[in-house]
Design goal:
The chain has 207 residues and is mostly helical. It has one domain. Helices cover 79% and strands 0% of the residues. Helix 2 runs antiparallel to helix 3. The longest helix is centred in the C-terminal third of the chain and has 31 residues.
C-alpha cells in the first residue's frame, strides 16, 4: 500500500475504534467488576467479532448481507434487544451481567468473551463500516491480498489496544475505593449509555 493511503486508513479506523460505544462501555464495566486481566477475554470477543466482519467484508459477503434487508434487520434488532437487556440489567438488577461490583471476579472467561463477542457482532455499524471503507483503500493495480492483510492486522491491533485500555481504565476506576453511591451512579450511567447505544442502533439503516 502507498504510505499515504495506509496512514489515512489507520487514522480513520483509529478514530472509529477509540470512540466510546457499547463495546467500550461493556469491556470497561467488565474490567471494573472482574479486573483488567480477566476483562481481556471480553476484549478478545470484541476483536474476534470484528475479525469475522472484516473477513466477510473483504470477501464481499458483507455487501450481500447489507443488501438483504431481512438478514440485516435480524442482526440489527437482535443487537438492539441485547443492548436494552444489558442496559436495564445494569440499572435495575443487583446481579446483572454488566454491572460494577466491589466483589470482583464474578464472571467466567467464557462468559466475558461471549458478552464482548455478541455485543460487537450484533452491531451492524461494524459490518457497514468495513463494507464501506475497505473498497476505498484498495488499489486494484497492486496485490489485493497483501493490502487486505495489512488493513486487517492494523484493525486488529487497534481493536486490541483500544479495548484493553478501556478494560484497565474500568479496573482502575472501580478499585479506587469507590463509595456505594458512586458505584450506583456508575451502574446507572453505564446502563443508560447502553440503552442509548441500543436506541442509536435501532435507527441504523442499510442505505
Amino acid at each position: 500500500m502507498a504510505l499515504e493511503t495506509f496512514l489515512i486508513f489507520a487514522l480513520t479506523t483509529a478514530v472509529v475504534v477509540f470512540t466510546p460505544g457499547a463495546a467500550a462501555i461493556a469491556v470497561a464495566t467488565q474490567g471494573a467488576t472482574n479486573g483488567g486481566k480477566r476483562a481481556l477475554a471480553g476484549v478478545a470477543g470484541i476483536a474476534g467479532a470484528n475479525v469475522i466482519y472484516f473477513v466477510l467484508s473483504a470477501t464481499g459477503i458483507a455487501s450481500l448481507i447489507i443488501a438483504s434487508n431481512l438478514l440485516f434487520q435480524i442482526i440489527k434488532w437482535a443487537g438492539v434487544a441485547y443492548l436494552v437487556w444489558l442496559g436495564l440489567s445494569a440499572i435495575f438488577s443487583a446481579q446483572g451481567p454488566i454491572r460494577v461490583s466491589a466483589e470482583g471476579g464474578v464472571s467466567s472467561l467464557k462468559r466475558l468473551f461471549s458478552q464482548g463477542f455478541v455485543i460487537e457482532f450484533a452491531n451492524p455499524k461494524a459490518l457497514m463500516y468495513f463494507a464501506a471503507i475497505l473498497p476505498q483503500f484498495i488499489d486494484p493495480n497492486q496485490p489485493i491480498l497483501q493490502q487486505i492483510l495489512i488493513m486487517g492486522v492494523v484493525t486488529l491491533l487497534l481493536d486490541l489496544t483500544s479495548y484493553t485500555l478501556y478494560a484497565f481504565m474500568g479496573d482502575r476506576i472501580a478499585h479506587g475505593g469507590l463509595k456505594n453511591w458512586v458505584v450506583s451512579v456508575i451502574n446507572k450511567s453505564a446502563g443508560a449509555a447502553l440503552l442509548f447505544a441500543g436506541f442509536r442502533m435501532a435507527s441504523v439503516t442499510a442505505k
